[in-house]
Amino acid sequence: MAETVAIERELAIAARPETVWEFLVDPEKAARWMGREIELEPRPGGRYRVDVIPGSVAVGEFVEVDPPRRLVWTWGWEPGGLGTEAPGSTTIEVELFPDGDGTTLRFIHRGLPSEDAGRRHAHGWDHYLARLAIAAPGGDPGTDPWLTESM
After folding, report:
1. Where are the domains of the chain?
2. Residue 23: what are its φ and ψ, rounded to 5°?
3. How far, in Å, CA of 113 to CA of 127, rounded?
């Protein structure tokens, strides 16, 4: 089996885990920090589909849903977009830990097929997780510049 790449991040969010959770599973709240059109069915086997930027749609399915602690879903791209990873070919794990009045979020994206894919996805996740850290406590991350810029 070929080596794969994983991205790992940990960040502090000034909102309780229950609040952060809603920004991961509620399509309206999720759209505040990532994507345009979002379909989420947060139950094992439920659909994950996010039109991240024009022409690039991430798809997969939820694997593990343990509110408000742990969320696991598969991830890949519909053909024709920027990403080449097949739908459902990688896995994302998010864990939320209470930290005073806030949350520590641990993020892992596993199974990326190359260092290049790891770099591209790390760049994207750094962008979007920073937006989540603003949106979840009630801030306004503003319009995502990636929705209007040509990539």
Report:
1. 9-138
2. -75, -10
3. 21
Tokens of 146: 């990636």
What dihedral do alpha carbons 13, 18, 24, 28 form, nearest 10°? -110
Tell me the pTM. 0.94
| Segments of the chain assigned E as strands | 5-13, 38-40, 47-53, 56-66, 70-77, 90-99, 102-112
Q: What is the tens place of the pLDDT at every residue in 41-97?
A: 999 999 999 999 988 999 999 999 999 999 999 999 999 888 889 999 999 999 999
- Cα–Cα distance measured from residue 127 to residue 133, given in angstroms and rounded to the nearest whole number: 10
Query: Cβ distance 96 to 21 under 8 Å?
Result: yes
CATH of domain 9-138: 3.30.530.20
